[in-house]
Specification:
The structure is a single chain. By secondary structure, this protein is α+β, with helices and mostly antiparallel strands. The protein has one domain (40-389). It has helices at residues 12-62, 82-92, 140-144, 167-170, 188-195, 334-348, and strands at 105-111, 118-123, 126-127, 137-138, 229-231, 280-284, 321-324, 329-331.
Length: 396
C-alpha cells in the first residue's frame, strides 16, 4: 500500500524570510539599474559631443580652418556698438533690401503651422517692408545673437555660443535644428519641450523639415529650444579680447572690449589653440551630472515651461561632459576647474590673472555666478583667459 506524501504549507517564518530576500534583492538591483541607466545616458552624451566634434572638423575643412561664427570678422570696424555697427554695415551695402543687412541666425526651412506655408525661419538683423523703400528697421536683439556672447547689459550673457543648432552649423550634422545629437539625454526639461512642444503636441524630433514651428508664447515671438551643448565664447573672439593681465607684458593688460578692436570679432582658427587637451570647446550647458535639483528659482519665469535649469557652473558637484580641442571628451568637475584657477592665480601672483577673466563687463559675477545653487564660483569655458590660446584646466 502506497503512502501519500503530505504537502506542507509555508510557515510564517519561511514566508517572512522569502519576502526579506526579495526586498533585499530589489534594494540591491534598483540602484544598480538606475546607475546603469544613468551611465547609458552619460555615454550617449559623450557620443553626441564626439559627433559634434566631427561636424566642427567638417566646418573647418570647408571654411579654410575657420571656426563656426555668425558675425562678420570686421563688424567692429563699422562702429563701436551693436546699434551703430550693424546699421552702418546695412547702409554701406545699399540700405534698402533685406539682403543688404548683416546675415542673422537662421533656424531653417519649415512649415508655418497656422498657414501651411513653407518658409525660412530666421532672426533677421533688419526687418524690411517690401512695399516701401528704405524701411530697414534695425533689430538690436537679433543682431546680438550673432556675437559670440554679448557683453551689453540689455542682451548680456547670450549669443552665438548658445546657437550651435542653427542652419549655419546643423548643415554639417544632419540638416535639422531639432536633431537628437544636439540634446543631452539627461536634459529632461529641454527634451520635454521638443517631444511635445510642436503644434497640437507633436514631436519636433519627428518633423521632416529643417525646423519645426512651435506655438508662440503669449506676447513673444518664436522661441526655439536651443541645444544642450554650448561653445566656448571666449574661444570665438580674437584672443586679444580675453587677454590676461600681465604686469610684465605691456601688450597684455586684461580684457579688451571687442568693439574697440578692428578685428575683435575675428574668429580664430582651431589651430591657434595652444593647449588643445586643456582648452574646452563644447560642453553641457545645464547642470546635468550629479544634479540635486531641477529648476533655478533665480530665473523667472524660465525658458522651458516656466523652468530654467541651473547651469553647468552653478554647483560644486556639477561635472559637465566636455569636448576639448584635441577631440577627447571627459567630465570636467567644477571643483577641479576652481582648484586649477586658484593654482594659476597663486602662481602668477596677480589677482586678475587666472584661468578665467574677472575683468570683463560681467566683473566678478562672470557667467551668472550669483544665480548658483551653492558657493561654486567659476566661469571656466565661457570667459577663458586668452581665449582659444588659454586653458580651462591644468594637468594633474
Amino acid at each position: 500500500m502506497k503512502r501519500r506524501s503530505r504537502l506542507h504549507a509555508f510557515t510564517i517564518i519561511e514566508l517572512l524570510v522569502a519576502v526579506s530576500i526579495i526586498a533585499l534583492l530589489v534594494g540591491i538591483l534598483l540602484p544598480a539599474v538606475g546607475k546603469a541607466r544613468d551611465q547609458s545616458k552619460l555615454m550617449f552624451s559623450q557620443s553626441n559631443l564626439r559627433n559634434l566634434g566631427t561636424a566642427h572638423e567638417s566646418y573647418a575643412a570647408e571654411w579654410a580652418d575657420r571656426q563656426f561664427t555668425l558675425v562678420a570678422d570686421t563688424i567692429g570696424a563699422w562702429g563701436g556698438s551693436i546699434g551703430t555697427a550693424f546699421q552702418a554695415y546695412y547702409e554701406a551695402a545699399g540700405g534698402e533690401l533685406e539682403e543688404h543687412a548683416h546675415p542673422g541666425a537662421i533656424l531653417g526651412w519649415g512649415f508655418l503651422e497656422n498657414t501651411g506655408d513653407f518658409v525660412l525661419f530666421a532672426y533677421r538683423t533688419h526687418e524690411t517692408n517690401p512695399d516701401e523703400q528704405h524701411d530697414g528697421v534695425l533689430n538690436r536683439a537679433n543682431c546680438s545673437l550673432t556675437l559670440p556672447i554679448s557683453f551689453e547689459s540689455t542682451f548680456g550673457h547670450f549669443g552665438a555660443f548658445r546657437l550651435i543648432n542653427v542652419q549655419q552649423f546643423h548643415q554639417y550634422v544632419s540638416g535639422k535644428f531639432y536633431d537628437k545629437v544636439f540634446y543631452a539625454p539627461k536634459d529632461d526639461v529641454v527634451i520635454e519641450e521638443i517631444t511635445g512642444g510642436g503644434f497640437e503636441g507633436s514631436n519636433c524630433f519627428d518633423d521632416p523639415g529643417e525646423y519645426c514651428d512651435r506655438p508662440h508664447p503669449t506676447g513673444l515671438g518664436e522661441v526655439p529650444v536651443w541645444s544642450s551643448y554650448v561653445l566656448s565664447p571666449a574661444a570665438m573672439f580674437n584672443p586679444q579680447v580675453m587677454s590676461r593681465d600681465d604686469p610684465s607684458d605691456p601688450g597684455a593688460n586684461g580684457w579688451i572690449d571687442p568693439w574697440t578692436l578692428g578685428g575683435g570679432f575675428r574668429s580664430p582658427s582651431p589651430s591657434q589653440c595652444l593647449f588643445p587637451s586643456l582648452k574646452t570647446r563644447m560642453l553641457e550647458h545645464h547642470w546635468l551630472q550629479n544634479t540635486q535639483v531641477g529648476c533655478n528659482p533665480g530665473f523667472s519665469p524660465g525658458s522651458y515651461g516656466g523652468c530654467e535649469p541651473y547651469y553647468f557652473n552653478h554647483a560644486w558637484e556639477s561635472s559637465p561632459m566636455t569636448l576639448f580641442y584635441d577631440g577627447h571628451v571627459e567630465g570636467v568637475g567644477v571643483r577641479k576647474a576652481m582648484r586649477a584657477d586658484g593654482r594659476m592665480r597663486a602662481q602668477t601672483g596677480v589677482a586678475n590673472w587666472g584661468l578665467w577673466s574677472k575683468d570683463t563687463f560681467f566683473g566678478e559675477d562672470g557667467y551668472l555666478i550669483d544665480a548658483g545653487y551653492d558657493q561654486a564660483a567659476t566661469s571656466f569655458h565661457v570667459l577663458t583667459t586668452d581665449g582659444i590660446r588659454g586653458r580651462d584646466i591644468l594637468p594633474d
